[in-house]
Amino acid sequence: MEFFLDTAEVEEVREIAAWGILDGVTTNPSLIKKSGRDFKQVVSEIAELCDGPISAEVTSLDTDGMVREGLELKETLPPNVIIKVPCTPEGLAATKILSDQGIGVNVTLIFNASQAIMAAKAGAMYVSPFIGRLDDTGADGMELIAEIMRIWDNYPTIETKVLAASIRHPMHMLQAMQMGAHTATMPTKIFRQLMKHPLTDSGISQFLSDWAEVEAAGNA
Fold first, then answer.
1. Which residue is catalytic, options 33, 40, 74, 84?
2. pTM score
């Protein structure tokens, strides 16, 4: 499974990239706003820290505008940047045009399996179902991942990767892996939570305590 970081904070990318497990980064207009920095500058800096796919989202709502923005971003940003478009009819049309030119596209804001399969047919490199936002409505976001993966199993020629997004807690991540999602994008706090366990901490503390006794005995 690919581990993507969902952020527009360069220092967070630097931290997780240093772990040696970061496969890509997703950004969106809300995250860029939160960073308070220039969009292209942020994405460029992130792309220098992680050589995997870096999603940069368009803001136009019409096909021509999405394509124009996508081409401009590909011309001015590092080559590992891919274009993120919303799952709308206009977004599907833009996905087809951009993917036909060899440009990777991440189709975002997917909330049902039919949207995912149509985005795949349009040539998307990634489809991004939003787990947490579905949970917020009282639905089961993980069931959407399971449904999409069952469909993908029926059609082994599909090359589009399923990117579990809007991950809110570690169990979302673990369930997505169990269901076979190709990729998951999560905030920095989830990366940290996945690595944290009290038995690891207590084990390290015990090892260090025992070693201190060994050194003390050796110096006696």
1. 84
2. 0.92
